[in-house]
Amino acid sequence: MIDQKLIAAIDKRQSIRRYHREPVARTVVERLLAAAARAPSAHNRQPWRFVVLEDETSKQRLANAMGERLRADRAADGDEMSAIDADVSRSYSRITEAPLVIVVCANLGVMDHYPDRRRNEAEYLMAVQSTAMAVQNLLLAAQSEGLGACVMCGPLFCPDTVADVLCLPCEWKAQMLVTIGAAARRGSARPRLAPEEIVIWVSGDSLRLPGSRRSD
Ligand SMILES: Cc1cc2nc3c(=O)[nH]c(=O)nc-3n(C[C@H](O)[C@H](O)[C@H](O)COP(=O)(O)O)c2cc1C
User: Fold this and answer.
1) Consecutive 10-residue runs of the chain (216 residues): their mean pLDDT?
2) Nearest Cα to 60, choosing from 25, 26, 33, 91?
3) Which of 83, 148, 193, 213 is deepest in the core (most CB within 10 A)?
4) What is the 151 CA–ligand 1 centroid distance (Å)?
């Protein structure tokens, strides 16, 4: 039996980037984090770690530090100062104007360690994959609470900056942050690729590649 409510919730979710100012109640935040922590994880190691920022000062401190890093990177790229200013300012507002910001990290310390690089990279990726699954739970849980949310990948570009500002343990690697709050503006429906562009059906010894003219 298909759980139509679940499918409808997945279909309905959209990234929300503008929020009303009212804070998200602590009990709601706890429910969101509990839902995130129900995700599957490699070896069931549950490598996700969440740093919750609710107050203005901590959000501003993070946004400022990330903004300075962004400015330095773009200046090194030789970008126009006006474009850099606009980008930094947009990133700052997005973080500071969200009532709730959750920085999501992968704790590499709980994963297995091997003598070779190949398997260590696999463990690293498993930690990242598991953490991303927790974030999808978080997004859907936020929606079920009547809240909007959006992932921002900024921390991935400046993990050391984020670690410094938040005094993270050295094994915690910042992956992304999630802004959450009551939606002040609706999201927009972003297109998705068609099934034939993303799926290869394999049956027996026939392999149907996307765009293939084979009919068998
Ligand atoms: C790993 C990841 C990183 C993302 N980073 C950003 C970001 O930095 N800024 C942003 O506005 N949206 C970000 N998004 C949201 C995507 O833009 C969004 O999910 C995509 O356009 C599809 O739109 P939808 O979520 O409304 O369906 C990110 C999403 C993911 C999964």
Assistant:
1) 90 97 97 98 98 98 98 98 98 98 98 98 98 98 98 97 98 98 95 97 73 56
2) 91
3) 148
4) 5
